[in-house]
Amino acid sequence: MDKWFNVGKVVNTHGVKGEVRVISRTDFPEERYKKGNTLYFFSEKGKDPLELTVETHRKHKNFDLLTFVDYTDISKVEPFKNGILKINETQLGHLEEGEFYFHEIIGCTVKTSAGEEVGSITEILTPGANDVWVVKGAKGKEILIPYIDEVVKEIDIDNKLILIDPMEGLLS
């Protein structure tokens, strides 16, 4: 059975020439949205995925704007609204040591180096210089953990465990 990984959600059309507005959920937008790359569209109705080839990509505000080969006007992409763009696991590239895919990090349990459980990672934000991991704490509180060497000390993907050395005030 195929394993699929989310790349982004189509939230709207943009203009009349078949461009769609995507909220990106990928670690590598420049790679995923490169001209000629294949993405798979999954509709809300859950039919078989539709194979799409990226024609153009550009950034606009907080969105990635994409067009696809043979989808040249708004009427053809209107049905894409609220659908999800995915890649197949065979499209995942090799990462260097110390690099991870979002799906490997999300769901990991975070503990301090002193052994105190902080919670589990529910989301990854990519605001700028470094990623920020959103951790749902034991009391339901969201804790933001910067993915920097000073804080994140060990990542064990096989055991879904991350050890941190929190800065003062990070967990309060």
TrEMBL record:
<protein>
    <recommendedName>
        <fullName>Ribosome maturation factor RimM</fullName>
    </recommendedName>
</protein>
<dbReference type="Pfam" id="PF24986">
    <property type="entry name" value="PRC_RimM"/>
</dbReference>
<keyword id="KW-0698">rRNA processing</keyword>
<dbReference type="InterPro" id="IPR002676">
    <property type="entry name" value="RimM_N"/>
</dbReference>
<comment type="similarity">
    <text>Belongs to the RimM family.</text>
</comment>
<dbReference type="GO" id="GO:0005737">
    <property type="term" value="C:cytoplasm"/>
</dbReference>
<dbReference type="InterPro" id="IPR009000">
    <property type="entry name" value="Transl_B-barrel_sf"/>
</dbReference>
<comment type="function">
    <text>An accessory protein needed during the final step in the assembly of 30S ribosomal subunit, possibly for assembly of the head region. Essential for efficient processing of 16S rRNA. May be needed both before and after RbfA during the maturation of 16S rRNA. It has affinity for free ribosomal 30S subunits but not for 70S ribosomes.</text>
</comment>
<keyword id="KW-0690">Ribosome biogenesis</keyword>
<dbReference type="InterPro" id="IPR011961">
    <property type="entry name" value="RimM"/>
</dbReference>
<dbReference type="GO" id="GO:0006364">
    <property type="term" value="P:rRNA processing"/>
</dbReference>
<keyword id="KW-0143">Chaperone</keyword>
<dbReference type="InterPro" id="IPR011033">
    <property type="entry name" value="PRC_barrel-like_sf"/>
</dbReference>
<keyword id="KW-0963">Cytoplasm</keyword>
<dbReference type="GO" id="GO:0042274">
    <property type="term" value="P:ribosomal small subunit biogenesis"/>
</dbReference>
<dbReference type="InterPro" id="IPR056792">
    <property type="entry name" value="PRC_RimM"/>
</dbReference>
<feature type="domain" description="RimM N-terminal">
    <location>
        <begin position="7"/>
        <end position="90"/>
    </location>
</feature>
<feature type="domain" description="Ribosome maturation factor RimM PRC barrel">
    <location>
        <begin position="103"/>
        <end position="170"/>
    </location>
</feature>
<dbReference type="InterPro" id="IPR036976">
    <property type="entry name" value="RimM_N_sf"/>
</dbReference>
<dbReference type="Pfam" id="PF01782">
    <property type="entry name" value="RimM"/>
</dbReference>
<dbReference type="GO" id="GO:0043022">
    <property type="term" value="F:ribosome binding"/>
</dbReference>
<comment type="subunit">
    <text>Binds ribosomal protein uS19.</text>
</comment>
<dbReference type="GO" id="GO:0005840">
    <property type="term" value="C:ribosome"/>
</dbReference>
